[in-house]
Amino acid sequence: MKADVGVVGLAVMGQNLALNIARNGYAVAVYNRTAERTKKFIEERVKAEKIIPSYDIEHFVASIERPRKIILMVKAGTPVDEMIEELLPHLEKGDLLVDAGNSHYADTNRRLEKLSHHGILYLGMGVSGGEYGALHGPSIMPGGSLEAYRMLQDVLTKIAAKTEDGPCCTYVGNSSAGHFVKMVHNGIEYAIMQSIAEIYDIMRKILRMSTSEIGQVFEEWNKGELSSFLVEITYKIMEYMDEETGKPLVELILDTAEQKGTGKWTAQAALDLGVPTPSLNVAVFARTISHFKEHRRELSRVFGEKSRVTSDKSLIKDLEKSLLLTMFLSFSQGLWLIHEASKAYNYNIDLPEVLRIWKGGCIIRARLLNYLGAILKENPENINLLASNNAMDFVKEKLSSALKVSSIARESGLPTPVLNSSIDYLFSLTEENLPANLIQAQRDFFGAHTFERVDKEGTFHVEWQKLE
Ligand SMILES: NC(=O)c1ccc[n+]([C@@H]2O[C@H](COP(=O)([O-])OP(=O)(O)OC[C@H]3O[C@@H](n4cnc5c(N)ncnc54)[C@H](OP(=O)(O)O)[C@@H]3O)[C@@H](O)[C@H]2O)c1
User: Residues near 289 by Cβ (< 8 Å), separated by ≥ 6?
Assistant: First the structure.
């Protein structure tokens, strides 16, 4: 028996993806650098699925039907290059390699170029949904040539999550479009996670709610407009008790957040392309600041006690609206970035399609996506979603709550960077006259950088002070 598809890399994602493909009726060849992991996988997780293990690359490649379709699910970075180098001598023209990890889009472009010289087709494919999604149906974001996508389309659409709008998989676009979209997906994910954490902080420190009470509020919210994967896991986290101490586990977890790079890359890409994504960017810095635990401990003593404003439970309604606003504006910024990247890199990305495939399986799936999709449908040029009376009404309806929450947090000395940046993003974009005229004057003053005028055409420079 030859395999229909090969999977390289059997950590959490690879194992579950391989099982998902096999459970959809395909024979899957699997290989992992460390043989022990493959053995354990076969012994502990594979039952009736058609899975063919290999312990050397040659045997692995030989066990796959031609033209071969091989999905790499290894650690992003040099491991992907190393695996490609190992596989390459055994591949033939017309074979397909798919990098399903969280690779940087520039790496994907480089690998695409290199493999095209060998006649090997290549897809850079984002996969979202964590281990559960990988097994039961992730959101899949493949990019590269359409020809390459067609080779694996049936498999991918079968294993993807399904919503009423179809499978959560689409051909995202040319070259590294898939990895770019997955990267921005993660950037939005950082912002929404931070935003939820800010609300949680206000609930515990200002409303003095217990973890269990907080969980109940998130559970309620998950039944309404805020319904989403991240809100859902938040209430489940609040309910989880530590067996050893009998306390909610979340209270025992050290407050330093890790990151693997996709949030930072999103911010870097936004800065490179000149797209404003402040809420996404500050979410990355929030994780960075969290890392300075010792320093924060020391400085909190130097700063002294912060007096917390008191508020009653009526604030919960404002917190809900506040979170809806930051979610909306995080998507607004992410979509804008994807749109600009699509133009700059000729990705040819269909934004409504991206929203559609984020509706199921993925970490940022949210009921709100239906609404965002409808706004874009109404006007596909509305790339940051704000150029619509409908969207502006939505945002304005949440704004007074967001301002109230932000103000209470400010007065209490609580950091709410995503909330504040989101408000400022909105205020900046809706302000016709920004003080950038002064910035231009300052630039021209010290560096003769020139400026434009509001009253006549042209580029100007004045001698702001006499040079001796
Ligand atoms: N975990 C998630 O929720 C998630 C979600 C979406 C996407 N992703 C992305 O999916 C990919 C896989 O993620 P993961 O969490 O399953 O695993 P991971 O911890 O990122 O990577 C571990 C896998 O990579 C292999 N590997 C590491 N260095 C290697 C090298 N130099 N050569 C060959 N293989 C090497 C490991 O093999 P050994 O067993 O030999 O060490 C193992 O199979 C990553 O790019 C990740 O960012 C992860």
Answer: 296
- Reported as a single tens digit per residue, the pLDDT across 416-427 is 999 999 999 999
Give catalytic residue positions. Answer: 182, 189
Testing ligand 1's pocket by substitution, the residue of 7, 10, 72, 74 carrying the most ligand atoms inside 8 A of its CB is 74
Superfamily of domain 182-429: N-(1-d-carboxylethyl)-l-norvaline Dehydrogenase; domain 2 (1.10.1040.10)
Does ligand 1 lie within 6 Å of residue 308's CB atom? no
Considering the entire predicted model, what is its pTM?
A: 0.97
What is the widest separation between alpha-carbon atoms in the chain?
Answer: 87
Q: How far is CA 31 from CA 5, 38, 85, in A?
A: 12, 7, 15
**Tens of pLDDT, residues 107-142:** 999 999 999 999 999 999 999 999 999 999 999 999
Domain 5-171 has CATH 1.10.3470.10: no
**CATH fit for domain 437-468, picks 2.40.290.10, 3.30.450.40, 1.10.10.10, 1.20.5.320:** 1.20.5.320
Are 6 and 17 in contact by the 8 Å Cβ rule? The answer is: no
